[in-house]
Amino acid sequence: MTEALRVGHILHEELLTCDPELPLHEAAARMRAARCSSILVVSGETALGIWTEHDALAVDLAEPAALEQPISALMSSPVRTIDRHATLDELGRRFDREQIRHLLVLGEHGRFAGIVSQTDVVLNYGLERYLQLSEVGTALSGPVLQLPPALPVAEAAARMRAAGVDAAVVTGSGEQRPGILTERDLVRCIAGRSSDARAGDLASRPLLSVARNCSLLRARDLSVQKGVRHLAVSDADHAIVGLLSFADILHLLEHDHVSQLEQVLREREEALIASQRSLRLAQQVIDASQDGVVVTDADGVIEAVNPAFTRLTGYRAIEALGKTPAILKSGRHDKAFYAAMWHALRTGGHWQGEVWNRRKNGEIYPEWLTITTLVDEDGGERKYAGVFSDISERKENEERIRSLAYYDPLTALPNRRLFHDRLSVALPQMRRHGQRLAVLFIDLDLFKRINDTLGHSIGDQVLMEMADRLRECVRDGDTVSRMGGDEFTVIQPDIHSADDALRLARRIVDSIRRPFAAGGRELYVTTSIGIALYPGDGETPEELIKNADTAMYRAKDLGRNSHQLYAQSMNAESFERLTMESHLRQALERDQLLLNYQVKVNLLENRTSGVEALLRWQHPEFGLVPPAQFVPLAEGNGLIVPIGTWVLREACRQAYAWLSAGLPGISVAVNFSPRQMQRIDLVETVIAALQDTGLPAERLEIELTESVLMEHMDEVAPKLHRLRAEGVRISIDDFGTGYSSLAYLKRLPIDKLKIDTSFVRDVPEDADDAEIVAAIVAMAHRLGLQVVAEGVEKPEQVEFLRGLGCDEIQGYLVSRPLSAENIGSLLERHLLPELAG
Fold first, then answer.
1. Residues 398-409: pLDDT tens digits?
2. Which of 26, 74, 186, 337 lies in disulfide reach of 56, CB 3.0 to 4.6 Å?
3. Which of 797, 753, 746, 750 is nearest to 775 (CA)?
4. Where does residue 586 rank: exposed (0-12), middle (13-18), buried (19+ CB within 10 A)?
């Protein structure tokens, strides 16, 4: 028989010792430096006492003087000892029975041989199979003590002491995640004399956790790997339901397994010595076991099986006896696997591990198998006993967990992590064989509208259909993944040229263009695709994904519903855009924004009728930045809302200043962006600006584009009616370039139409433009609307427009955009050009 493992085999021979007069904080500092959980207090060759991490709970951390006490005042005495020849079973029982975690090991003549701890027992008990089949939840001892992060450490220690626990969870605060406070952290506090610390300052992070149904073996191995003695235990809802320590594992081993094992061993020993009755009892135990048991002779011929063997394999005893375990072979293991198994049995007498076997009905299943070599008392006859259990359910749980870790639960596509792993594997293969590869980054255009308008359930249906269409477009060897949200990626390995990737992108664009059936309706969706090629556009997964993403945004910038190959210049543009965006975020608070104003003239009365406020950005480094460069950025990142509010208030303030100075009564027009119009408090914001500046409502004109009205009709219409009721006037800017639907002209409280410059530029020479302008003026007047012509630069345009009855004009012929000061000077001195009439 194999010799039992002794205490002397696992003890720590290097003892950490100190004198009895050593201050407590210095003793703690030595323990921390040595990464040791105990310190032995000695005088010469005599052990006076021991101070452990557990004793840190008894220190009054609220009193700084307590940390200066000699270690002898706080040590545990007398020191409990154990002989180095004692067995691990005896050691484990003493730890569990006496509720201690350290024992001084004595050697020959009572000399100090070392220290042994609970942790040493758990790591060396040799019951891995039992731990593998036991769940974490069976070892939990009680509820979790939770401490707020602001709790003083003295109070935290007191609560832990009162609860009888050696660790507590420190809850999270703000962005800080939860942590754990253990006796080791209290030792660290004592060593640093940090009696004024808070629980959150001392807590160790991150808080490592395992699922309640995780095996104890996996939990133990994780603790060893991470160098911790405690793990948080979570339930199916990810709520923390307990803390698992080595003490809990040892307690379970002692009470739920070791005692049973000893009982079985005693019964079997008595059976071998005493009588045939005991042999029959042992057979009954084997027959009642839920694990399959098979015994073979030295040549591997089956001599005996138990009922569980039949239940698990489907083979009756009469069918198995006289055969070899080869009848169970699944074909999944090669000769080297079985050679290693037999080598372990012949040299060590023992083998255990996971095996795939085949039932009688042909079903292949996984089992945990332990094989032990049996030798008679004379060391002559050799037999082999195998004990196995079906671990199919555990494997299924592991597969389910793996699926959650590597696959998107909505679309069943590989997720970001698995995509990155597959790309990391594919690139070395491409490099080794001199092949090319493409990464496609795919994003649905304006998908947020579907979620916001129809709900996330409809959006999810679209995403699932999107995943199916992508699968149909690619080859078997390609990988499609969902990166998150409405972003998808494709790995297209082994391509001949960029044309292969472009053909795939066109197939995807065409496929997505077909209507989606969701929620009983047809939805039309488009997509933008960016393509990066290996090796030209990057040699790492990160480079290829980033560059494909950049190309995708380039496709969006060029109008969406298209694809773009990556070009190096895109990164420069992207960097420039990011730089511009960063500066733009500071422009408002640094007073870099300003307004220019362009005059509008009443063509029929030949007088100034108003001004349009035009936003400018005067940057100290970039100079005067055109609106076309920064307004789209502000629209994209949401800055347009605070900027738009500033424009509104500044324009109202300036108009009121002109009004107060006695200048001709003019109105000010302010352009509103789509994001501003979507704000719930839009009307209140406008009314507040008028009230705060004193400008009469009839002097404010809001300009909107047709696209804003048509895309957000139901949302915008009530707000415009409320503003019109307050006296604010409404204009449609760039009329003729958008939807130009007569329906919204009838539904909305519109006062003016502004004919876009593109139609005015070539009149009266261009007959088509002249007809369009004439039609717009006639239609607007029939609807009771005024008309403003933009971009007027020539006198003949003025005459043409006056002849049509156009109400107002605006353009360089009247005035270029000017500062508020220059506009005021023009109005005061009547310096605007005379328009012939």
1. 777 666 678 888
2. 186
3. 753
4. exposed
